Structures are given as C-alpha cells and as structure tokens.
Amino acid sequence: MSASRWDVGGNTFMGAGHGHGHAGARHRWRLGVAFVLVAGFFVIELIVGLVSGSLALLSDAGHMAADVVALGAALTATTIASRPDRSGRRTYGSYRVEVFASGFTALLMLGVSAYVVTEAVGRIGEPVSVSFGPMLLVGALGLLVNVVCLFLLRSGSRESINVKGAYLEVVADAAGSVGVLLGGLLVALTGASGWDTGVAMAIGLFVTVRAVLLGREVLTVLGQHAPRDVDLQSLVSDLEALPAIAEIHDVHAWTLTSGMNVATAHLVLRVGADSGEVLQRAQTVLRDQHGIEHATLQVEADPSQDCHSATW
Question: How far is CA 237 from the centre of its chain?
Fold first, then answer.
C-alpha cells in the first residue's frame, strides 16, 4: 500500500492505500464462463417455450435473457473499472461503474418479474394447452446450468456487489428452473394447466423480492451511507484512544465499490504531538481494525483553532 503526504495551509494531509485491489476483476473469468453457459441455454429454453406454450418456460427464459444482459453488463463493468483513468477527471477511477451495473441488474429483474406476473394474471381462467414433457426436460437442463453458475459466482458474490447482482440473477433462475420442474410434474399429474400459471406467478414474486434487496444495497452505496461493516462509533473511539489525539470531528465513511471503503476525518492533536507519527498510527488503526485502506486525514495542531468545517 502506498501513501502520500502534503501540506496545505499548514495542515498535513495523507492519502493512504492508493494501490487498490479490485474485487470484481478477480472474478471476471467466472463471469465469462457463466455468461456463455446462460446465453446458450437461453436460446434453447426460448425455442422450447414457444413450441410447448409453457408460460413457466417463457418466464424462465425471460429471466435467462435478463441474466445474459446482467452478466454482460457485469463483465463490461469489471473491464471498465479496471482501466486506468487518462482523463485526469475521475480521481477515484471508474470503480462506481460496477455499482451502476448492479442497479441495472436490479431494474432488469423487476421488469421481468412484472411482465411475468402480468402475463400470469391475464391467463387466469383461460384454457391453455401446455406440453409438460418439454417443461420437465428443459427445466432439468436449466437447473443444471444454474447450479454450475452458482458455484462459479458464489465466492465472488461475497466480495463484489457487481458479481453479487449476477449471482442473485442466477439464484432467481435456479428457483425458476425448480418451478418449471414442479409445474411440469403438477401438470402431468393433474392435467390442469393452471399449475403452470401459478408457478410463473410464484417465480415472478420471488424475483421481485431479490431485486428489491439488491436495489436497496445499490442505493446505500450511491447514497454514500456508512458501510455496513464499519462501526463509526467504534472507529471514532479507536482513533480517540491514540494518546496524541485530543479530538476527532468531521468523520465521513462510505463505500466506493465493493471492497473499497474510504473515509475522511479531522484529527485535533495534543500540544507537542508529532503529526507524522499520529498520521501513521491513525492509518494503521483504520486499515487493520476497520478495513479502510484509503483515508484522507486532516491534522489540526492547535486544539483552540477555529476549524471551518463543512456544515454537512
């Protein structure tokens, strides 16, 4: 990790941890393999759904289409986020593009689920002929593809919100494949095509819940809320526990993208304190105890100094 230090108006600033590790980029190959698998299966499921007349298959194909787009967006986002900024304007790089891609995925999931539920409601009471054989075959194949993709993306979903968005899409599709299998069995056992419609509605509602949860996480990052894994009270207490620090104020912490938490703070030093040593120790506390590798810290040597801090 590199650090830089400079003086402005008598105050010492430090930028720590500029050599960021990019969580999403580490899992790009997994996204690529999942993209190829899902895109191939989408074509198969769409054709069979149209031929068999199964709304459950068509709804699951819609989810697969959203998966193809979401995985493609995730791949594109990780590529863009990894590129160095040559414009000189994006001082934090392009890491936020991954968050935007996740938001796009959430909107896709909501759109597909709304369409499926609307179509299912429209079918209620209408006589529909459904071929359960293709439903069972394609549902089983889809479940296999989804399980493989889940194993590919699971580890990355814990580190990257971008990969998490793609992972949740696959989770929704796995549920859809199970639903297709269940619907096919129920149609075969009862002869009632209404089960196909009911399964489609259940899939749509399930996807809606997952999309809302992902959307809330995206909005939390874009709103620059304090990261969930950072306890601000504990962070302030740990910094105030350093002997040379008299007071902490103007503390801000937020998430740039998954795995990249950043913070700013003003440190009021006790008389005679070594600012360089304080900065180094504060940096260590933030990095080792709170996982914040990029911190901009302003030192105020005179406790009585009137700090013209921002009102927000």
Answer: 30
